[in-house]
Amino acid sequence: MNTPLEQHLAWFSGLTLSTLARIETVYAANARFADPVHALTGRDAIQVLYARMFDTLETPRFTINRVIAEGDSAFVAWRFDYRYRGRAFGFDGASVLDMDDAGLIAHQQDYWDSADALAPLPLVGSLLRLIKRRMA
Fold it and tell me: How far apart are the first and last CA of the chain?
């Protein structure tokens, strides 16, 4: 049988709007989630974040590239690919996951370059490209 971590990673890899309904098998009710632009508490708030992702982006998909696990914690390197207004985008990131005694995610800290994620936005993306050109 798969470990809870393996089950969670399979859920992330196959995440769709319909599989989002099984979030209670992945996150603890009072789970904390943080990334460069969000700080959320509670499984319901995390579910809203993922639902918004499906409302905003076309074909969002996480690909798990590497996992290092020790005890109730894991480091997960991943790639997030999606389409926005018909154009393909993606960026690499990593998550640190801490599981509770029931094997559910109690805390998730995501790390990724927000400049890569914001590049598709018309005004922000143009500004970021200008800054990158000037720094090169």
Answer: 50
What region does 133 belong to: left with phi over 0, alpha with psi -120 to 50, or beta?
A: alpha
Whether the Cβ atoms of residue 24 and residue 8 lie closer than 8 Å to each other: no
Answer yes or no: are the C-beta atoms of 32 and 40 closer than 8 Å.
yes
Residue 35 to residues 86, 94, 114, Cα–Cα distance (Å):
25, 10, 9
Tens of each residue's pLDDT in the chain, 136 residues: 489 999 999 999 999 999 999 999 999 999 999 999 999 999 999 999 999 999 999 999 999 999 999 999 999 999 999 998 898 999 999 999 999 999 999 999 999 987 777 766 777 667 777 777 888 7
* Domains of the chain, earliest start first: 4-135 (3.10.450.50)
Indicate the pTM of the whole model: 0.87
- The pair of structure tokens assigned to 101 is 């005694």
